[in-house]
Every structure is written in C-alpha cells, then in structure tokens.
Write a structure and sequence with these properties.
This protein has five helices and six strands; from the N terminus they run E-E-E-H-E-H-E-H-E-H-H. The chain is of the alpha/beta class. It holds the Pfam family Peptidase_S15.
Length: 215
C-alpha cells in the first residue's frame, strides 16, 4: 500500500465560484510515483448511476483547485462527467517539499497519477478518461497524453508559449541574445555565491514564507 501523507484539507466550500446544486462534491487524495500525496476536489453529477466518463483538471501555472480548474471540473460534472480538479505537487493542499515550486516532470506525473486514481474507481469507465490542462498546465497535459495511452482525450487551454516567453520575454522584450546570456551568467554567479553562503536565494522573486497579508 502506498504511503499517504496526512494532509490538512478544508471541508467547507472555499472556492472562488458558486457551488452548483446539480453536482455532488467531495475531497479526495491520491499519491503519485514520487510519493507526493495530492489533494483534489471531486465533482459528480447528482443521482447518476453506473460507470461515468471521467476527467482530471489542473492549472493554470501556480494556481490552485479552488480557482479555474475547479470551475472547469464542476461545469463538466453538470455535463455528465465525473471530474477531479487537483492541486499539483508542492502547491495548495497537496503535499511535497519545498513548497510553491514546479517541475515539468513531476507535474506531468501528477496528471498520470490522477488517471491512476480515476482508473481504479468503481464509478469510472477506465476506457473513457480524459484530461484538461489550463494555461501553463496545458503543456503538462500534452506531455502526459503523449506518455499515457489510458488518456483518451486531451484539451489544453493555453494562451501563449511559455518556453518562448522564458527565452525571449513577453512579446519578445528580451530578444537580445547577449543580454540573455549575461542574465544566465549572473544567475550562475549567484548560485555559486549562495552555495558558499550556505543558503540558496529563491530564484525568480519567490517569497517564502509568504507574508501574512499576501493576497
């Protein structure tokens, strides 16, 4: 049996969208192959019997299941799907350390672990499982679909190319190769300085821990 991390899950309705009375809601957990316990909101159409088509939903990048992914999942439940919206590893109510970090490999695995969970539910048809990736997690969803033949349908709602933005900045604002190379040299020098000092600076301006008055 997989070791499940004990999570502190909020039981009251705490979403950014109203609850739909046509849909049953509950909290569930599952474990990925990295040993991280993931928290999810499960939405199921009321009064429906038998095995349902199912969806796993996550994103946008840095977001939690109480936001867009939960709204997508609840809406799909009104259309006859059993849907889960999950917090990725290290995010929201899901486990994993350090907090508020991202890994394309682990986040791709998060989708596959969600499919593991759905495939083993008695009320899910394992031959009709799909995934939805929103914004930055559209790429993670496509990665998972390329790896996992159990995923029969994939939708990615992605507004821009994250790799290109990382490389060139928004709308090509960092299209100067020499400037980008200089930035990489500065990051590398900072890593050396941090290691000598005995503590890494969190790259990208991430504040950890978050202040009490953070939005």
């Amino acid at each position: 049996m997989m070791q499940t991390e004990k999570l502190e899950l909020t039981q009251e309705w705490d979403k950014t969208f109203p609850q739909d009375t046509r849909v049953d809601h509950e909290k569930v957990t599952f474990v990925n192959r990295y040993g991280v316990t993931l928290a999810a909101d499960l939405y199921k159409p009321k009064g429906v019997q038998g095995k349902l088509p199912a969806l796993a939903v996550s994103g946008p990048f840095g977001a939690v299941k109480e936001q867009a992914s939960g709204l997508y999942a609840q809406e799909m439940a009104t259309r006859g799907f059993l849907a889960i919206a999950f917090d990725p590893s290290f995010t929201g109510e899901s486990g994993g350390q350090p907090r508020r970090v991202a890994s394309p490999g682990i986040n791709t695995e998060d989708f596959c672990a969600a499919v593991d969970y759905l495939s083993c539910r008695d009320d899910v048809d394992p031959e009709r499982i799909g995934i939805i990736g929103i914004c930055g997690f559209g790429g993670m969803a496509i990665n998972a679909a390329a790896l996992d033949p159990r995923i029969k349908a994939t939708a990615a709602m992605t507004m821009y190319d994250m790799s290109r933005v990382t490389r060139e900045g928004y709308f090509g604002s960092s299209d100067n190769k020499e400037a980008r190379d200089e930035q990489r040299r500065a990051w590398a020098a900072q890593r050396t300085a941090d290691y000598k000092a005995g503590e890494y600076t969190r790259a990208g301006g991430v504040v950890d821990p978050l202040p009490d008055d953070a939005p």
